[in-house]
Every structure is written in structure tokens, then in C-alpha cells.
Amino acid sequence: MNTYEARRDELLARFGAGAQGAVGLAKDTSNLFRDRRAVPKRRIDVRHFDHVLRVEPGWVEAEGMTSYEALVAATLPHAAMPAVVPQLKTITLGGAVAGVGIEATSFRHGLVHETVLEMDVLTGNGEVVICTPENAHRDLFHGLPNSYGTLGYALRVKARTLPVRPYVAIEHRRFTRADAYFAELARECRSDADFVDGVVFGADALYMTLARFADAAPGASDYTFERIYYRSIRERKTDILTTHDYLWRWDTDWFWCSKNLGAQNPILRRLYGRSRLNSRTYTRLMRWNSRWGFTRALDRLAGRHPESVIQDVDIPIERAPEFLEFLLREIGITPVWICPIGAGPARFDLYRLEPGRLYVNFGFWDVVRTRQAHPAGHFNRLVEAQVDALGGIKSLYSDSYYTPEAFWRIYDREAYRRLKARYDPQGVLGDLYEKCVLRH
Questions:
Q1: Which of 57, 64, 399, 424 could form a disulfide with 154 if both were Cys (CB 3.0 to 4.6 A apart)?
Q2: DSSP string over 250-268
Q3: pTM surpassing 0.85?
Q4: Alpha carbon distance 10, 342 (integer Å)
Q5: How much is the pLDDT for 292?
Q6: CA–CA separation, 365 vs 311, rounded Å?
Q7: Nearest residue to 313 via CA among 400, 406, 383, 209
Q8: Could you give the angle at the alpha carbon of 85 between the alpha carbons of 395 and 65, nearest 5°?
Q9: Cα(393)–Cα(428) distance, rounded to whole angstroms?
């Protein structure tokens, strides 16, 4: 199978062969943070769809299982990068389209799916359709994001790229008040910065990071081994990285979550070694722990009641101070990643942001431990209710606890029904609510 066309045709033949029934992907990686119940499915092997096909001025074409690590490796020699590069190397292009991908260029270029120009989608009908914003399958083009494989799988994606220079010069600014912080964030989203994001370490320790490409540097910082990037935000006002290292600045320590796996202890960090300090290692360890319940057992012995709160939520920027105050008061997780999103002109049915409006992504990922027992999902339900009250929306890659009525009010049930009727009438790809909330 030397070409994309050969791989596609062979997959179509396998998809149509054998007994019908629920279909899922056979693949080696996943960046979902919710456990799934074991449901019998016919597995379609897409692991070979991991090739970068073309890099041309202004765009890259690659197969759906291509990791962003491979995409960056292919585009940087052409002095280019994907317009939005999600934070972790193992995220795939197709996964970022079917889910929701974001990074520090999103203030200008939107979410990953807003950078897509064209894609081939394998539907539940057993067909591959070409989708663009204007053609006969534009409904699927605008419906696939946030569908998590329940409408089809992106086999080939053509997406926009941006020109790059060798280095990225960084400026970290500290704020002590949320209202001033978010007001300045909105102003900087209209500036000439190439990248904008930030980190909240506490109610009076809010940091904004502005970054711009540079042609030369006297030296570049290295956060791929002994030094830790997120700590440098409070320690340095300015910094400089190679463009490659800037794009992967969060991967080495999984933002800051590597601390939960001992990887920030200097001795253990050396034992890990440079090659194992990455999201790929941490994901494997997380899944091992989820399977065997090691930390759950420790919590029981200590008399603690844990709840994982791993969420990314998008809030209109004018309501961002309210959400942050709620988050620090009711959930208590820090640090919190801050990433502005400039919603583009198109509407995407299952992830509806108001066109032209500025949102703020809050990323918070930790375990809340209490001495008092709470109903299952207590803290996640608080987050969901507050996001809804403030006119926001949350990604579905992790635990969700919505009722069916609340879920379909947010994620557009009628649009989803129309898409299922056209592209998966037998329901072989499953249902979005059942997959994301009921964990089927």
C-alpha cells in the first residue's frame, strides 16, 4: 500500500466485508481522558494512515493518523508550521479535527478545524466523501468537528500552514487582578504577536505570554530535560526558544501534570531520561494507573475521596473573570492554562462559537481530593453548570455528566440527527451522547 489511494481502497474493502454492527478504530494512540466501557465492535485498522502527503506554500496535506510531531517535522524544513499546532506531540491531525484542537495561535486562526481546507471522510455508509466548505458535503465539513468519530473518520486532511522563522522570542507579563488581565489579553489579541497564551498560578498571579518569531538569537533555552518550562514563566520576564522547542514547550512536562508521575523530582527526572520526558510516556503511565487503580487504592487508605477534573472549556472573554473566580473558589485547581480563541466566520454545528467573538479557553487538569464524600462527578457537574450559565462550551475529550436534555441543547441535536441520517443511517459509528457521557 504505497499510496494514499491504495490504503484508502483497501480500507473500504475491509469496511464493507464481514458482519455489520458497531464499528470502531483500531489504533495505538488516544488523547481521550475518559475511560470507556468495553463494547463489542468490529475494529477498522487505520494505523497505516500516518503519512504526510504534500507540503506546499500555505498548506499541508496528510493522512488522519499523522501525529502533529510528524506534521511539524515535515513542515519546519519548508519554513512553515500547521496554522494551529495542539500542545502534545501524539495528537493526530484527524483526532484534532474530530475533537477540538487549540494552541497559542488560536487567537488569530481559531481552532484546528477552522484551519482545514478539505478532507476525505470515511462515513458509516462505507463511503469516502470529499468535504469542503462549499461542496455537496459541506454539511459534514461543518458537522465533523466535536463528533468524535460518530459521523465518520478523516482519512486525508488538507490544512493551512503559516510561515515561520528559526526562533521565538517570549515575553511573560504578570497581573494581580483578573479584570485587568483579561482586558489586556483582549487588547493583545489585536496586536502583532504571533502567539498569545497564559497561565494562572493563583488569584493574584496571572501571567500572560506573548511570543513573536525571530530570525536570530544569542542562545536558546532548553526545557527538554532538566529545566521545566512552566516554572520559567514566573522566573523570567523574557526568554527565547527555537521554533521547534517552542511548539513542543508543553509536551515535555505535559504542561505541569508530570508532577503527578514524579517526573519533576530532580532525581526521578534523571531516571526518566530525556527520551521519556514526554506526553507519550505519561499517557501510558496514566492508562496503566487507570487500569490497576494504584492511586485510587492510596486515596482509600488515606481516607480521601478523589475526583478527576480534566477539562478544557471556552468562555466569552467578557465573562472570563467570573469563570476564573468560580474555578479558584469551587474547584481550587492551579495552575490553569489560558488560551484565547478568535472564532472565525463559519459555524460548526456541534461546537458552536459565535462567529467573530473572542473566547478564552481555560485548561485545568488535576484530581480534587476531599475528606467528604460527594456524588459521582460532583465537581465536574459544577463546572458544566457554570460554563453553561456563562454562555460557554466545553470539549468532550474527558468526563462529561450532562443529562440528555442538557447535552443536546448545547450540542445541537437536530443538526446531529440530520448528519446521522445522511452519513450513518444504520448507526454503526455510535451515538455522540452515548460515547462521550455514557462512555460506550
A1: 64
A2: TTTTTTTGGGGGTTTSHHH
A3: yes
A4: 40
A5: 80
A6: 6
A7: 383
A8: 80
A9: 27
pLDDT digits (tens, 9 = 90+) for 172-188: 999 999 999 999 999 99
Residues of the chain with pLDDT under 50: none
Which residue, among 131, 241, 247, 156, has the nearest Cα to 197 in the 3D structure?
Answer: 247
Amino acid at 169: A
What is the phi-psi region of residue 206: left when phi exceeds 0, alpha when psi lies from -120 to 50, beta otherwise? beta
**Rounded to an integer, what distance in angstroms lies between the CA atom of residue 202 and that of residue 317?**
18
Residue 303 CB neighbour total at 10 angstroms: 7
Question: What is d(CA 256, CA 294) in angstroms, rounded to the nearest whole number?
Answer: 21
CA-to-CA separations, 95 to 292, 389, 397, 413, in angstroms, rounded: 27, 28, 10, 22
Cell of 284: 501510558
- pLDDT at position 426 is 92
* Helix residue ranges, H only, 189-328: 229-235, 243-247, 266-272, 279-292, 294-302, 320-326
H-run or E-run covering 82: strand 80-82
Cβ–Cβ < 8 Å for 307, 371: no
Cα–Cα distances in Å, from 61 out to 71, 118, 120? 9, 9, 11
Query: Which cell numbers hold the place of 71?
Result: 506534521
Q: How many CB atoms lie within 10 A of CB 36?
A: 12
How many CB atoms are located within 10 Å of the residue 238 CB?
8
- By CB neighbour count within 10 A (0-12 exposed, 13-18 middle, 19+ buried), where does 436 fall? buried
- Cα separation, 431 vs 320, in Å, equals 32
Angstrom distances, CA of residue 141 to CA of 102, 136, 350: 18, 10, 11
Q: Which residues contact 15 (CB under 8 A, 6 or more apart)?
A: 23, 44, 122, 126
As given in the structure block, the three cell numbers for residue 101 are 484542537
Lookup result for grid cell 473500504 = 12
Cell of 433: 451522547
Inter-CA distances, 208 with 95, 171, 198, 228, 353, Å: 28, 8, 4, 17, 23
Characterize 112-135 residue by residue with b for buried, 16 or more Cβ atoms within 10 angstroms of its Cβ, and e for exposed.
Answer: bbbbbebbbbbbbbbebbebeeee
376 alpha-carbon distance from chain centroid: 25
What's the confidence (pLDDT) of residue 39? 66
In DSSP terms, which residues pair with 162 in a beta bridge? 81
Query: What DSSP designation does 240 have?
Result: E
CA angle at 287 for the pair 281 and 288, rounded to the nearest 5°? 90
